[in-house]
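Give me the fold.
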Amino acid sequence: MKYFLHFFLLISILSCAQDKQPILGETEFQKKMNADFKDATKSPLKDKDRKDFKELDFFKFDSTYIVSATLKRTPDSKWFKMRTTTDRVSQERVFGILTFFLKGKEHQLNIFQGKDLMQKEEYADYLFLPFLDLTNGDASYGGGRYIDLRIPEGDTLIIDFNTAYNPLCAYNEKYSCPIVPRENYLNIEVKAGVKDFVKH
């Protein structure tokens, strides 16, 4: 009888160990995203997509996609209603214009500040950088991607395109996602960050 108890105990320990799969990812950003997507309390995935989820598909980390950008602040910019994938609109303003070099060319992107998020203490200095590029609809999500940044003390911002992520509506249409403004289009392939998600 004791043998069977030990046997079942061993089996249960082994099965628990097998259930506890290591979090995959090449960088801390990738591991954090994969962990959140596996977590039923945080994941935007539908249950059927999360059931067999192991990891998101990322471009390989590439340090050439980490750039230093000059920030020209636009303190007099007006609030406007940024369209989303639903009837909701997001109150945003252009916080500033980012100028940087990537792949041998100079580029500019508008960076935005959200009115609602400003009211929340933990997001008071949050900035939103949505962008489109030539990988959209092919290797990356067709609607473009986002990068989260914080207001810097000076006039320089480090943009790490390896942390570019998909809008939540790329995984589940129930979410309301800001639509990337056309002026935030980069006429290059940004082969960094999260790739498109293949739904089941």
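The chain has a mean pLDDT of 89.
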